[in-house]
Design brief:
Layout lengths: L1 E2 L3 E3 L2 E3 L13 E6 L2 E4 L4 E3 L24 E6 L1 E3 L3 E3 L54 E6 L8
Length: 154
């Protein structure tokens, strides 16, 4: 969002990644103002990665990795941010299911954004041990740039 006047967030802005399968990477939120940006104390901006899907013995699949945390950018001469900003990487799904059906697959990796997506969990080639857990994703980035973005918008 680019605004020539002030941007004031009094609510919730969400751009979270989807959950299940490989978790989706968090979104990108860019707020740019020629004057000021305020994310009030009771307000939130989220761009979190999604949670990876759990292992499933009946479907023959390993657990999937979480989605990487997103990116939040606030560009204005004055940035006031007493509110909450969150770009947390998603957790990997629950592993440990013993996969015993002949047709099977390891878990999918999580989608990347500002942070890396988590690796999917592996499964045994001989179907006799519990599936390995996937990895959690890494966090994204919150950037506060104190500058007038007007010259970037021409």
């Amino acid at each position: 969002i680019y605004c020539q006047n002030a941007i004031i967030n009094n609510g919730v802005i969400e751009a979270n990644g989807g959950s299940g399968g490989g978790g989706g990477g968090g979104g990108i939120v860019i707020l740019a103002s020629s004057t000021s940006i305020t994310n009030n104390a009771s307000s939130t901006i989220h761009a979190n990665g999604g949670v990876g899907g759990d292992a499933n013995a009946l479907l023959g699949k390993g657990a999937s990795g979480g989605g990487g945390g997103g990116i939040i950018v606030m560009v204005a001469p004055i940035v006031t941010n007493p509110g909450t900003t969150s770009v947390t990487g998603g957790a990997g799904g629950a592993g440990g299911a013993k996969i015993t059906i002949p047709l099977h697959s390891a878990g999918g990796g999580g989608g990347a954004s500002g942070g890396d997506g988590g690796f999917g969990g592996s499964i045994s080639a001989v179907n006799d041990v519990a599936s390995a857990p996937p990895l959690n994703a890494t966090d994204g980035y919150v950037l506060e740039i104190k500058a007038n973005p007007a010259h970037m918008m021409q």
